[in-house]
Amino acid sequence: MRRKLWRSRALGVLAAGAIALTGCTVTVTGHNQLGPQAPDATLAVVGDSHGGFDQTVKNGLSDVMAFWRVQYPSISGGKPLPELRGKLYSVDGNHPSTEVKQNGCLRKAGADIIVDNAFYCEIDDSIAWDRNAQHLVPTLGAKYGPLLVAMVFAHEFGHVLQQRLGLFNQRVATIVHESQADCAAGAFAAAVARNQAPHFHVSPADVDRALVGYLNVRDDTPASDKEISHGDGFDRIGAVAEGFQQGATECYKSDWADREFTERPFGSREDQLTAGNEPFSQVIDAGPSPPNGGGGGLQPDLNKFWKHAAGSIHKQWTDVKIAEAPHPKCGDTSSRFGYCPDDNTVYFDRTYAEQAYNSLSVLNIDRVLGNVSVIENQPADFALGTLFVYGWGLAVRHQLFSRSLDDGPALLAASCYAGAYAKNTNVANTAGHDFFLSPPDMDEATSAVLSLVGTDQAYGSRGTTGFDRVQSFIKGYHGALGVC
Fold first, then answer.
1. I want to staple 19 with a disulfide (CB 3.0 to 4.6 A). Which of 8, 135, 376, 484 is the partner?
2. Ranges of each domain in the chain
3. Residue 17, pLDDT score
């Protein structure tokens, strides 16, 4: 049970909502052993608790501001960055003080808007956040690391930039502004990964960990198109990845509003009642889908998809099979999920497959106190489905191109193929498919690519990071098979 969180830009009376890729994969190369970090930032904060979380926020904002002082002329026609005119506000969401109510948005809309929130307030050009240790951003920071906290505030500063560039005057959907701020967070994260942020030294694993946390601030599936606000997890991670890959100027290009988003409502009452999930038994059933479609059919559909793709390049496709077994019959037989080219079969261990099916994390909110907890092991049929899709991707490498199957390029190619298949089976492109995706499936796939695919129990990392795989998955989704 979740409500909308992280309302990241406060305009007028209310805070507006919670905190299409091509190009090459960018490998994260940060390291932890780089000597001492810079001394803690000493930014002035109204209501500063002088605790660890507030210090992380100050360090993050200090580095974000320094980053944009350098980058802003590249997006403003050479103009220098105007500094914040307003103040920074740290608020205990359960006990907002009189002093903190100096903030223009808290004063106008009421102190409740700060609960589980961090936002840029356009009224007085300020940034405010809820520091309560049980609330959203501190909880996620404690679980997913200080880089995630810094990225939250890099997102907020993305809105600061929009105000300075006059972008709030555009008549565009909220998701356009929010995804643009996500892109700004990605551009900053790339600088951190290159060890260019004084207060944050990170490893590739730290970046992956922060991305998993960022995925958890996705929108709930909206009830209607009117409720689309910030993007599902795939939209948000995709925007972060674009900033990370392409840099600051990409985020503020004039055609940002033309990008494609995948967030959408459920298409049927039945799909909504099941949260878009088929039963586990159906996901591993390799039989044909029901005559009326709309369920089952993943493995037959994958064979149909790849038979057509092979035919388009004048090659033959041999249908891949699946089989339950403790480990694959060839290749890495220590794994519990993998493709064996010797018999053209994807093998899965049932216990591990059940874990993959129940692998999604969601946020649970106490609606009275605002306390946040991360609930693990929630149903996600397409997280398991994505593991199967990767097996077919490796089969493509083997059958159609006779290329390696056990290295990083193989796994990144399979990631790209998986993204292309996901696009082809998403709701707007289901012609000819027995199987199609529900609204939450793109989040489930993103979670699997980040957190499941590279584990030793599945395909292994093979020298790739979760972010490497996600970038390749996104490339395939937006570029189709031709870019893979």
1. 8
2. 9-258, 273-483
3. 32
